[in-house]
Design brief:
The chain is globular. By secondary structure, it is an all-beta fold. The protein is built from no helices and 16 strands. Strand 15 (about 180-185) and strand 16 form a beta hairpin.
């Protein structure tokens, strides 16, 4: 539709603007043409450094899911910029067989890119976890209360551990097929691509 959303990483913000307004000069938040929303810190006050963003709909209402690359969270906002949910990626949800960074002041999982899709008539959001060499998937059919669905390791030759470095796979970009059956993941550290099937969700 007419709405454009973008993450502003260095200021921990989300920008919303209508595409039809982009013909006007010098759009600002002061004149109401641009909405800028400060995204939540985590429980200990670390900013999210928002990275990937994905759009989805539930019951005809538009939402955006935003990956908090630095504080291991994700935020869901609606089309007005109102914060609907802010969730931490729970360490207990990510299998201990997967790598993670164990280093004070660094994110364990580092959610990076976002893909949204519908599977079994339910909205889902998938995040690449750069430090874990994995994809985490959440059911967001109730956007106020996202539910963890699964985490899947990607790549072929993971050499990382639970230490100060984490994964050697380093998944970056992610996209979903139009029918929601597959996710395609670009693995920056391994120079490979993984195909993840949604069948078990």
């Amino acid at each position: 539709n007419d709405l454009v959303a973008a993450t502003l990483q260095d200021s921990h913000e989300l920008l919303l603007v209508n595409r039809s307004d982009l013909t006007e000069p010098a759009l600002t938040s002061e004149d109401g043409a641009v909405t800028i929303v400060r995204l939540p810190d985590d429980a200990i006050g670390a900013g999210p450094w928002p990275d990937g963003i994905g759009r989805f709909e539930v019951a005809g209402t538009e939402y955006f899911a935003i990956a908090g690359e630095w504080n291991d969270t994700f935020t869901i906002v609606d089309g007005t910029g109102a914060i609907i949910a802010s969730e931490a990626i729970a360490p207990a949800d990510i299998p201990t067989t997967l790598p993670r960074v164990i280093d004070e002041g660094s994110p364990r999982f580092s959610p990076d890119s976002v893909a949204t899709f519908v599977w079994s008539k339910r909205a889902h959001v998938a995040f690449t976890l750069r430090h874990s060499g994995a994809v985490a998937i959440y059911d967001v059919s109730n956007p106020v209360k996202p539910v963890f669905a699964t985490a899947v390791g990607v790549g072929q030759n993971e050499g990382g551990n639970q230490d100060e470095d984490g994964s050697t796979i380093r998944p970056e970009g992610i996209a979903a097929s139009t029918n929601g059956e597959y996710l395609v993941v670009a693995n920056e550290g391994e120079s490979s691509v993984s195909l993840v099937k949604s069948v078990d969700l």
